[in-house]
Amino acid sequence: MGCSLAFLIPFVSLIAVAASGSEGAETVWSGLVIAENVAQPQSVPPELTRIEGSLKKFFGYNQFQVIGQSQKTLKTGQEDWLATSKFFGLHVDARGESAAGYVLNLQLYKEKELLLETDAKLSKRSPLVIKGPQVGSGQLLLVLVIQ
Amino acid sequence: MKTFEEKWTAWLDGKLSGRELSEFETSLPDKATAEAEKADARKLGVLLRRELGVSALTNEEFFSHQLRERIRESSVLSGKRDAKPSTWWTIPRLLWTGTASLAVFLVLTVFVMRDKNPAEESQYLTQILNARVDPVISPNATVSMFEVKQDRVTVLWTEGLQSLPADYAAK
Question: Which terminal residue of chain B has fewer beta carbons within 10 Å of its beta carbon, N or C?
Fold first, then answer.
C-alpha cells in the first residue's frame, strides 16, 4: 500500500504538470471591421466584445460591423488563411509558434492592390488591431484575436 | 552419633530398623503418644503429596503446553530480531524520500514559474515587428504602433492611407 502510494504520487504529479504545461490547438479570429458613428449603433459582434471599450476609446466610433472574417484553428503554427469582404482581403500567414503566441505575416489587399503589410507576434492574450484606410465616413479596422 | 531429633525424624519416616529401632523405641518416654504423632505425620505427608504433588498432564494439556512453549520461544526470537538496530535507508524509505523531494521540486517549480510571469508580462503583449505601406498607392502614409498594457491591446496606427468611397464597406 505504502509503496503503491509512493509510485502513484509522482506519477499523478507529473501528469498534472504535463497537462498544465501543454496547450491544445488554438483558434485565431481575423476580422475586417468597419467602424462608424451612427445614430443608432448596432450591438458589437461577440468576437469584439472583449475589446469593445478599447476600440471605442482609441478610434472614437460607436458602431463596429464585421464585413469579413475568418476563424482558423492553428495546429502546426504554419497555416495561412484569408479573411475577405467584397473589396478587401486580409491574408494571414502563420510562420511559427512560440511560448508567447504566433508569428504572423499580414497583408491587406484592396482588390488586388497590396495596401499594407506587417509582421507581428500575436500573443495568446493580447488582440491586435490595425487601423486601415478611411472608407466613406467610417474606418476599416483589422482585428486579430486568439480565442 | 545421631542426635535424638535425627533419630526421631528417621523413626517418623520409618527409616530406623533393627537394634537402632528397638533402642530408640525403648528410649521413648511415652510410646503411645509417639505412635500417634507418627500416624499424624504420615497422614500429613500423604495429604501434602496429594495436594501439592505434580499431577500428570493429559494429552490435550501436554499439547497446549508444548504449543505455548513454542509461541513463547518464537516471540522471544522475534523480539530479539526487532531489537537489532535497523538501517534507516531502507528501500521504502528511499522511495518515500524520492517522492517527497519530487513533490517539493514540482511545487517550487510552479511557484517560480508563477512569480516569473508578471515580470515577463510585456512579452505576452502582441508585438508588431515591422510594417510597411505601398509608397506608390499611399505616398504620404505613415505607420506607428503602440501597446495599451491596461487593455492588453496592441494597435498598428496608420495615417495617410488612400481614402475610399463608402461602397468599399460592403460585405
Answer: N
